[in-house]
Structure formats: C-alpha cells, structure tokens
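Need a sequence for this fold. Nothing fancy.
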C-alpha cells in the first residue's frame, strides 16, 4: 500500500490561539482544525474534517508554602458535532475544571 495515508492520521491539522492576561489570570481562545483521515488501508473511505473551539480561564494565587492554580475550560465551545472514529461521537459543549497546589521549596 505504498503511497497511501496512514489510517486515522490527518494529512493536515493545525490550531490558532489568542490569549489575554490580566494580573494572575489568563483567558485563552483556541480553535483546532483537523483534516480528513483515512479509515481504511486502501484509503477508499475518509472521515470528514472537523474543527473544535475551546475557551479557558486559568489563574494562580500565591499561598504559604506554594501557590494555588485553578482552571476552567469550556470544551467544544461551539457545540460541534464530530467523530474522531466513525460511530463514536465526541462530547458536545461541556465544562472541565480543576485545582492544583504547587509546593515550593523554601531557601
């Protein structure tokens, strides 16, 4: 199968990102674009291209002994309908968030 695409590997993909920072906060907008992917060895069937948007807010707050980091992300912000594998739809718009405490050594 020389000269054929690898299964599920897009020929083209990319992303664009813009962010705005203010004090300890950062707002990020990201758009990902993925081209068609071969679903069969002979490349006779291609899955459709798709794009997904993400909006994220993250911040850092100093604390005794380290810092607290928080994030909130709106995944698939435009509620795109797409499948990475045929028959397995990806989640619609949803929120993901988290907290982490980062310990810092004192000198």
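Here you go.
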């Amino acid at each position: 199968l020389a000269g054929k695409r690898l299964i599920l590997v897009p020929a083209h993909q990319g992303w664009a990102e813009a962010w705005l920072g203010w004090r300890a906060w950062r707002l990020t907008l990201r758009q990902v674009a993925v081209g068609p992917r071969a679903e069969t060895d002979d490349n006779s069937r291609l899955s459709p291209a798709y794009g997904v948007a993400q909006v994220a807010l993250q911040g850092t707050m100093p604390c005794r002994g380290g810092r607290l980091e928080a994030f909130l992300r709106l995944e698939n912000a435009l509620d795109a309908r797409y499948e990475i594998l045929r028959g397995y739809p990806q989640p619609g718009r949803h929120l993901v968030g988290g907290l982490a405490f980062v310990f810092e050594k004192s000198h």
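For context: The beta strands are 13-22, 25-34, 37-38, 46-47, 50-63, 66-75, 83-85, 88-89, 94-103.
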